[in-house]
Design brief:
Blueprint (H helix, E strand, L loop, with lengths): L7 H9 L17 E5 L6 E9 L3 E6 L4 E2 L5 E3 L3 H18 L3 H14 L2 E10 L4 E7 L1 H13 L8 E7 L6 E7 L2 H4 L2 H10 L15 E2 L1 H10 L39
Parallel strand pairs: 3-10
Antiparallel strand pairs: 1-6, 1-8, 2-3, 2-6, 4-5, 6-7, 8-9
């Protein structure tokens, strides 16, 4: 079967026709960024669990989601990375039981890097564009944002906010601060967009397609990049699996204290 799908005038028509395009409403949010936003409601957020190692393996979610209990612990459909983390935690316990507390601590750190961790998507009206947008946050970052949203929950239709990220690595902080004087601190366009973005509720369909889903083969390749011996899981892949790590993403690393007790 030929790889060529159109020829002649049909090819010209296809090339010049406007194509349907899907654009992500995810707003890049590196440290040093301040966004002016309208929080449409206190409910415009979603939790997901992902794997990844900052600077080494980009954030991904298993194609087959794990089943979890109310506390977020995996109860079924463990991913390859979940299984690897469980093995390392067992190694850490064995080391501790054998009297090697220092070695056990190092192994626990390795296991923590592999385990799935909660992240949060937070939606808003973007006062720069007049469209919906969202950012991707760690539990620690999201907790402060949700606290501010709850504090001003009864005035969300009257107050714009500045969403700011500062710091680096595990010291990265995100704040949501009210803009009290919108006449003084917003431009005419931003005030118009505040009104515009309040005309409709946040569309959760904006979140769809943002998460990178990895099947077991892709997870296994990433596990090799992470430095885990996949033979311990009875897995093997071709030589191509040891390829260089992908470009880093902006997802912040999550510290051991970054637990996800955030209520929506």
């Amino acid at each position: 079967m030929s790889q060529f799908t159109k020829r002649g005038s049909a090819a010209v028509e296809s090339a010049t026709a406007e194509k349907d395009a899907t654009t992500s409403l995810h707003v890049p949010f590196p440290s040093g960024t301040t966004l002016k936003v309208r929080i449409k409601s206190a409910e415009d957020s979603a939790e997901y669990y992902a794997h990844g190692i900052f600077g080494k393996v980009n954030t991904f979610v298993p194609k087959v989601p794990a089943e979890r209990n109310a506390k977020g612990y995996v109860t079924a459909n463990h991913s390859v990375w979940d299984r690897a983390a469980d093995l390392l935690y067992a190694d850490a316990k064995a080391a501790k039981d054998g009297g090697d507390e220092k070695g056990a601590e190092e192994i626990r750190k390795q296991a923590y890097l592999l385990k799935s961790k909660a992240r949060y998507l937070v939606g808003f009206g973007n006062l720069e564009t007049g469209e919906d947008g969202f950012v991707d946050l760690t539990p620690k970052q999201a907790k402060g944002v949700f606290a501010a949203i709850n504090k001003y929950a009864k005035r969300l239709d009257k107050i714009a906010f500045e969403l700011t990220k500062s710091g680096s690595s595990t010291d990265t902080a995100v704040t949501l601060s009210p803009i009290i004087d919108m006449d003084e601190d917003l431009t005419d366009v931003e005030r118009e967009n505040f009104a515009k973005t309040g005309e409709s509720p946040f569309d959760f369909a904006a979140f769809e397609g943002f998460l990178f889903e990895a099947d077991e083969a892709e997870q296994t390749k990433n596990l090799v990049i992470a430095g885990f011996d996949i033979a311990r899981l009875g897995l093997s892949i071709g030589a191509a699996a040891a390829s260089s790590a992908p470009a880093t993403d902006e997802s912040a690393p999550i510290s051991d204290t970054d637990a996800p007790p955030v209520n929506f």
